[in-house]
Amino acid sequence: xxxxxxxxxxxxxxxxxxxxxxxxxxxxxxxxxxxxxxxxxxxxxxxxxxxxxxxxxxxxxxxxxxxxxxxxxxxxxxxxxxxxxxxxxxxxxxxxxxxxxxxxxxxxxxxxxxxxxxxxxxxxxxxxxxxxxxxxxxxxxxxxxxxxxxxxxx
Length: 154
Fold this sequence. Notes:
This protein is an alpha+beta fold. The protein is 31% helix and 36% strand.
C-alpha cells in the first residue's frame, strides 16, 4: 500500500467546503485546472462517474463513501491496483470567541492498494498527487468565492 495526504485549514464552515467538494464531483462546479466529473446516476455510494483529468483521457471511477459534510471518496481500478481519492472534513478544534468551530480542517488523500501497489505506488503516487496542494487551494478558494457571493445575495 502507498498513501499520501494534503491537509489544510480554512475559515469556512464544513457545510461550505462540503458543497464545493460535492459540486465538483457532480460536475456542477468547474474551474480552470480542475478534473471534469460526469455522474452516471445519483450522488451516492456505488454510482459510477467519468473523471477527465485536464489534458488526459477519461477514466471510470466509483463513489465509495458519501457522508455529507464529513467524507467523500471515489475509487479507480487499474489492473491490480486500486486508487482511492478521499476528502475528510473536520471542525477546526480552535474555537472562535462564540464557542463555534473556527473553520474546517480538510484532508485530501490518495491511497494506492492492491497486489501491485508496492511496485507501482512509489512511482505513480507522487505523479498523481503532485498537484494536491494546488488543487486543494483552488477548490477552497472557489468555495470561499461562492460563500462570499451567497452572503451578498442574502
